[in-house]
Every structure is written in structure tokens, then in C-alpha cells.
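Page 42, continued from yesterday. The earlier attempt failed because a stray header line got pasted into the input along with the sequence. Redoing it now with the clean sequence only.
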Amino acid sequence: MQLIENFFNKDECDFAISEIMSYKNHWYNCAETDMFVVGNSLLRKQDFDKNGNKDYSNYLNSKDLYFKTLEIFKEKISKEFLETKFCSFLPKPGFQIINTSGSKNPAVWHYDDILTFYPYDVEFSDYKNNFPNYFESFYIFNLMLTDTQSNFDYFPETNSNFLNVLPAETPICKEHVNLVGDNCPNSSCKLKEFKSISYSRGSLLIQKDERILHRVGIRDINGKDEMRITLTGYGVVKNNVMYLYW
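This time it went through. C-alpha cells are written below.
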């Protein structure tokens, strides 16, 4: 994990928030997490057909909103890492908005397994559902835009990759996945002490090539009447080019 302080300066954060507020009629309330989403997230837009197969039409046919903030983000990523492009067919990164006086549901323990479910073949014609071997690297980006209490909770002992999902000896608890809070119903659960990374306004938290059990910091939902807003997206690297999407 990597934390880059001041990836966005104050003016860039202010501008991003003003753009997000100008699209308030496009905020989507996620019933599962009680957070608002702006943009086309596969996690919020995937459907299933009558046979239970994934249907990507709603996701792929959704038109991206224009945010200059995303252009700024892409250019900064290009300077920090390597040549960076938006995907041509997969939607661009977006934004998550959490009311810190609301429910604790946004702080749900999860893995970013959604990364393996994207229809990458629309972007890369030779992709054959081989996510762990096809891309050179993958990134998960969270850029804090508001001056609110901001933490990333995680269990370091759950770290793995998507090729070798978990070594047999790794203490893992299936009941922790999709758990809100810390009262695990599994009496044999070995996940007892999570770690936290605190990050401030303008800071970019990056996960690279890791699959780890994590959540929005539970302390961030503290009863204050504030909005916790992040720019969120993924990046995959193919032929030394990073492609951004969500």
C-alpha cells in the first residue's frame, strides 16, 4: 500500500467538490451501503439475466458524465507512474459520498473481487477471463477530497493476490466478508485486530497488486453532519500503459 500526501492541492479538491455538487441530480443512492455514487460503477450497475448470468449492458451503455477533475487526475497519474489513458469502452472513475452522520453500512468489510468480473474483452480483444495472468499490474485508487476524518481499515494477514487467492495457513474468516461492525458471528474467527491508515484531504491511497480484506474507516462515520467524498477508480496495466476505469 502507498499513500501520497497532497496529490491534489486545496484548489483542486475545492474544484472537484464543486463539480460533484453541480451534478447532485445524478447522485445515486446505493441501498446496500447507504453511500451516494456519482459515475458508472460496475458494482452498482451490474445486472443478471433470467439464467443468472451477468448482464453488462446497463453498465456499458451508461454515458459518462464529464468531470475535468478526472482529466486532472489522469494527468497526475501519468506523471507519477506511467503513460495513463481512460478506457475506451469501460466507464471512467467516479466518486463516493458518505454522510458521516448516517449508518455504519458504508464501513462494510470486503475484498475488491469485483476486479475479476469486468468485461475486459470489450477493451482488450484477446482477454479470456484470465485476470491474474493477463495484466502486468492492477491498482486501486482512493483520493480524499474533503477535510473529514478519513481512515482505511484492513487486516494485513488477509493479503493475497488473485492468482493464489489465499494460502491454506492464512487466518481467514468468510463471515467477515460483508460484515458491518466488528462483532463477527464466527466464534473461531482469528481476525481480531485490524490496522488503520489515516489520510488527509488531497491524499491518494493506492493499493497495488494486492487483494486484502478492508473497509472505509469505521471511525469516519462519527455522527458529524459532514460529507466524506473520495475519487475512486481502478487501473490495469497492459504493455506498460495504465488504463483507468471503474
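Notes: The chain has five helices and 14 strands.
Reminder to self: strip header lines before submitting.
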